[in-house]
Write a structure and sequence with these properties.
- By secondary structure, the protein is of the alpha/beta class.
- 39% of the residues lie in helices and 16% in strands.
- Helix 7 links the parallel strand 5 and strand 6.
- The radius of gyration is 19 Å and the shape is globular.
- Bound molecules: NADP nicotinamide-adenine-dinucleotide phosphate (NAP).
- NADP nicotinamide-adenine-dinucleotide phosphate (NAP) binds next to helix 10.
């Protein structure tokens, strides 16, 4: 078993991004600029946004956090997005999910100018991704493809099983793995909560990508020996033994699955760190007008 080390790859790619960010600053006289909107103070969302902001600073981007309390109306949020859409000095805009129940995530996602949608959730970007056209690729699947590329993992002709079909991870991941591209060219199976006997499919996976949000869901008896395992799950549990007061677990039973896999991502230290790289890369190509001019 070998580790797909998100810490190593993300640090390496951050150095490359920082060089390009400095070139952007020299050329246009300002830093690439990411704006994040955060509604409420959910512990997980606070952590993820803080990490995104911190990493922006690290690579020489400007970052701005716009906060709202949970009683913000949908109309107020839509108006703020509109204002940021029009700001020529903002290259990327993300709204941290989940949102309170009275706000439609679909409406919010569609309000973001697709040319600043560096999370890659807007239907225009998803549609363009499906057609293999230049677009912002959703940050987590994008990060996973960069990880596969970094470790030269062969994907062509392989059977890739994706467990989970969310709009932000499972569904776009399955599209990317099936595309005629590298990484890609897999035969893809998507499993979800209505799939009977998931094990039947996971046991046949050369590449198994799991994004469901259930601690240790994938056990060793569900995995084909030698498979590549990508664990997207981030399941937070309170803990008295950690400084932060919580502990992260993946969707894969790492301890027992790792010994039979060929490659595996740890949690933490795997996909989560690569998601931030996806976001930074999208912001960089946005300021350089490499996707939309
Ligand atoms: P989501 O929107 O909650 O979707 C979960 C998906 O898993 C759904 O498609 C659901 O099926 C499926 N599912 C749930 N229980 C299942 C079961 N018992 N068997 C088979 N399928 C099942 O989740 P998400 O936003 O994709 O997130 C998934 C996990 O990844 C979470 O732990 C999240 O925190 C983590 N995540 C991590 C990153 C990162 O950067 N590492 C980024 C995003 C998310 P149905 O569609 O049938 O309901």
């Amino acid at each position: 078993m070998e580790l797909l080390d998100g810490k190593y790859v993300s640090e390496k790619l951050k150095q490359e991004i920082a060089v390009e960010a400095a070139e952007v600053l020299a050329k246009i006289g300002r830093k690439p600029h990411l704006v994040a909107i955060l509604v409420g103070n959910d512990g997980g969302s606070e952590t993820y946004v803080a990490s995104k902001m911190k990493n922006c600073e690290k690579v020489g981007f400007k970052s701005t956090l716009v906060r709202f309390t949970t009683d913000v109306t949908e109309a107020e949020l839509l108006a703020k997005i509109d204002e940021i859409n029009k700001d020529a000095e903002v290259d990327g805009l993300i709204v941290q999910l989940p949102l309170p129940n009275h706000i439609s995530p679909e409406k919010i996602t569609e309000q973001i100018d697709y040319r600043k949608d560096v999370d890659g959730f807007h239907p225009v970007n998803l549609g363009r991704m499906q057609r293999n056209l230049p677009c912002f690729i959703p940050a987590t699947p994008y990060g996973i493809t960069m990880m596969l590329q970094e470790y030269n993992i062969e994907t062509s002709g392989k059977h890739c099983v994706v467990v989970g079909r969310s709009n932000i991870v499972g569904s776009p991941m399955s599209i990317l793995m099936a595309r005629n591209a590298h990484p890609g060219n897999c035969t893809v199976t998507i499993c979800h909560s209505r799939t009977p006997d998931i094990k039947k499919f996971t046991l046949d996976a050369d590449i198994l990508i799991v994004a469901i949000g259930k601690k240790n869901f994938i056990t060793a008896d569900m995995v084909k020996p030698g498979a590549v395992i990508i664990d997207v799950g981030m399941n937070r549990e309170t803990s008295e033994t950690t400084k932060s007061g919580y502990k992260l677990f993946g969707d894969v039973d790492f301890e027992n699955v790792a010994p039979i896999s060929s490659w595996i991502t740890p949690v933490p230290g795997g996909v989560g760190l690569m998601t931030i790289i996806g976001l930074l890369k999208n912001t960089l190509v946005s300021v350089k007008k490499e996707v939309y001019s």
